[in-house]
Design a protein that fits this description.
Elements (H helix, E strand, L loop, with lengths): L1 E3 L5 H11 L7 H7 L5 E8 L2 E10 L3 E9 L8 H12 L4 E7 L3 H9 L3 E6 L9 E6 L4
Parallel strand pairs: 4-5
Antiparallel strand pairs: 1-2, 2-3, 3-4, 5-7, 6-7
Bound molecules: coenzyme A.
Coenzyme A binds next to strand 4, helix 3 and helix 4.
Amino acid sequence: MIRVATLDDIETIRRICDASFDLNRWSNTSFIQEFSKDHSIIYIYEFEGQAVGYMVIWKLSLTVELVTFAIDKEYQNRGLGKKFLTTIIKENKGYTWFLEVNVCNDVALNLYKYFNFKECGIIKNYYGSNLNAVRMTREAVS
Ligand SMILES: CC(C)(COP(=O)(O)OP(=O)(O)OC[C@H]1O[C@@H](n2cnc3c(N)ncnc32)[C@H](O)[C@@H]1OP(=O)(O)O)[C@@H](O)C(=O)NCCC(=O)NCCS
């Protein structure tokens, strides 16, 4: 089941975030701030009754920015990330998508390419010194 997060999910989101990212981990405050932004939506993926993933998107007038996205380490490589993104893309049909991903993150790069995201730029030092990001976009499809 995929649902919109509430403030009660913050601890779970933080736990998944800390286990999934070596760089750029978000603080509780960063997640809490998302709840006050009109354009921000935080989704939770529940699998077998357990929250196993989260995704933050910024939904603007014509575009969606995939801000951050993770599946709990214990549940990775089982197709859940693909299912999660499939559902959220369907739910936000007609929007052009953008995201940034670490140039070294082959798993995420493969996943995004599967969904027809194309590379549209490199952002140097995005994650720190010599840690570059690939900017990707996916054209709007109806
Ligand atoms: C990226 C992430 C969300 C993917 O979720 P997941 O549930 O593990 O992914 P899935 O099992 O659905 O696999 C989806 C696709 O990812 C790619 N993939 C998965 N594991 C991979 C691996 N070990 N090596 C290369 N590609 C891999 C494949 O394209 C795979 O599709 P396929 O199985 O049909 O070949 C998850 O690995 C994660 O949370 N990583 C840490 C946080 C992160 O990097 N988030 C993205 C930041 S932009």
